[in-house]
Amino acid sequence: MVNFETPAPPPDIFVSGYLQEHYGYAVQRSRGSGNWLITYTIAGQGLYRLHKERILAEPGDLVILKTGASHDYSVPRDGTWEFLWAHFLPLADWTNWLHLPELCPGLCKISLHATATRDRVQQAFLQLNADLNSFFVSHNPPTSPSDSLAILQRKLALNRLEEILLLAIMENRFEERRSYDPRIQQVLERITDDLREWHTVEALAQMVALSPSRLAHLFKQEVGSPLIQTILELRLKQAARLLAFTNHNIEQIATEVGFRSPFYFSRQFSNHYGLSPTAYRYFHTTHP
């Protein structure tokens, strides 16, 4: 297949659509786009390539490529792919709940198993398309944000997108809760409910009536990474969101995610992301 660069939409535009493609369809944007891309597979398969990983999108799968993640997706050989898509920028007030599992850096995938959820997501996507189409074909330019029909239609479309994301996150959390040992789920909820608190293995173990050593062993067995490492990663992920979507200073963010020292926070953040908090914020500001 010949390599080529697919033009990316302007970063501040909110667009969506429906496609039914066959083998030969491919999109390549080595630098990604200045916004997020979400796809929902209705039928067939789509193939994503990122960081030497190959990820299949099958019916019921939502895939999100974040800002800056390279775009390399296509229809597998002899296949077809029917899907809905949207390019968007997350609203600032979505930061507190827009936590998605990443299969690899910059790519999130959530598989929807419940038929009711699939139907609701598909309908929300179709309504999103209708709302955006109404927005773009409006012949009455807005005279003010408060009385513009076009602005209201765009807000409706954003509400549909928010509904899609919330439904996906809710189903993902339901699946996580169903699969984890109840004691580990309780520990995870305690940590994420208050990242500011100085969580210790001893205190968390006491909460679920386990010895610290037993909790540490069970947690790694269930989650796949050590408890203390998971706490650190959760704090750093939330810090990254706050850096990208808020104007809070470094010291405020360090405190909000549970670091007592902004210097220690900066060192841990740099070790994890390869950029200082200031450089990370600058990158996301200049590459929206």
Automatic annotation (TrEMBL):
SMART domains: HTH_ARAC. It comes from the Bacteria. InterPro entries: AraC-bd (IPR003313), Homeodomain-like_sf (IPR009057), HTH-like (IPR037923), HTH_AraC (IPR018060), HTH_AraC-typ_CS (IPR018062), Tscrpt_reg_AraC-type_HTH (IPR020449). Pfam families: AraC_binding, HTH_18. Residues 185-283 form the HTH araC/xylS-type domain. Gene3D superfamilies: Homeodomain-like (1.10.10.60), Regulatory protein AraC (2.60.120.280). GO terms for molecular function: DNA-binding transcription factor activity; sequence-specific DNA binding. Keywords: DNA-binding, Transcription, Transcription regulation. PANTHER family: ARAC-FAMILY TRANSCRIPTIONAL REGULATOR (PTHR43280), RCS-SPECIFIC HTH-TYPE TRANSCRIPTIONAL ACTIVATOR RCLR (PTHR43280:SF11). This is DNA-binding transcriptional regulator AraC. It comes from Ktedonospora formicarum. The lineage of its organism: Bacteria, Bacillati, Chloroflexota, Ktedonobacteria, Ktedonobacterales.
